Amino acid sequence: MVEPKKVSAKGAVKAPAAAKSVAATAKPKLKAAKPLDHHGASIADETAAALSVVPTPVETLKADPVPVTVVAIETPLAAPVEVIASVVAPKAAALRQAVGEAVSASAHGALAVNDKVIDALQTQSDAALDLWRTTVSAPHLSDVFRLQSNGARQAYETASAQWKDIAETTAHWFTKTVEPLSAAISDLKR
Questions:
Q1: How far apart are CA 27 and CA 19, in angstroms?
Q2: Rounded distance, CA 13 to CA 6, Å?
Q3: Backbone phi, then psi, for 54, in 5-degree steps?
Q4: How far apart, in Å, are the Cα atoms of 101 and each of 97, 98, 111, 174, 187?
Q5: Any residues with CB less than 8 A from the CB of 154 and at least 6 apart, and which?
Q6: Could you tell me where the beta strands, DSSP code E, fall in 96-185?
Q7: What residue stretches are annotated with the Phasin domain (predicted)?
Q8: pLDDT score for 60
Q9: Distance (Å, rounded) from C-alpha 176 to C-alpha 105?
Q10: Cβ contact 142:149 at 8 Å
Q11: Contact 85/170 with Cβ under 8 angstroms?
């Protein structure tokens, strides 16, 4: 049986007592969950607390300018940092010097290899032109075959010697380039 609703003197509608007790047992009251930070405090509470400390623009305008004195505070880490800097500075300078030497050696090596490649190409083109000149001026077909085979053999031997020299120069170039860096790195490890 449903009881009629009663109106109080103020005009608000009140539910009967039995309905209140049933509602209380049927639906437990749940609080709205607030997002929490990693310490378990409510983010909204922390934000409100932080905003309450911030002065309003009116307060900022009313404040008198105050001279600010900057005082250097020596921390207990200042001395170890200076010690580390004094140890690292010479090693950094040695590494800079090694990099400079490596760059210089690399530039000289690249120029040497470049010169040898250009010389090899020039020599090979000259040998090919000389071979064709002698072949064209040969009086007999048998002389042409002999000159052609001898010229090809000489061109091969010359090219092989030049490219071998270029390979050795390139290996020397890379060795001289890496040498200062490897010495500096081995010094740093000590």
A1: 12
A2: 6
A3: -70, 130
A4: 6, 5, 16, 13, 15
A5: 127
A6: none
A7: 98-184
A8: 45
A9: 6
A10: no
A11: no
Neighbours of 81 (CB within 10 A): 10
| Residue 147 per-residue DSSP state | H
Nearest alpha carbon to residue 16 among 28, 27, 6, 26: 6
Alpha helices per DSSP H over 65-140: 78-136
Cα 124 from Cα 130, distance rounded (Å): 10
Low-confidence ranges of the chain (pLDDT < 50): 7-8, 12-13, 18-19, 21-24, 26-37, 51, 53-62
Q: What are the structure tokens assigned to 154, written together?
A: 């000489």
Amino acid identity, position 37: D
Whose structure tokens read 């690399």?
106
pLDDT value, residue 95:
87
In a 3-state reduction of DSSP, which class is residue 6?
A: strand
173 with 106: CB under 8 angstroms?
Answer: yes
Q: Which amino acid is at 21?
A: S
Structural domain boundaries in the chain: 78-189
Element (H, E) at 14: strand 13-14
* pTM, two decimal places: 0.50
C-alpha–C-alpha distance, residues 115 and 24, integer Å: 98
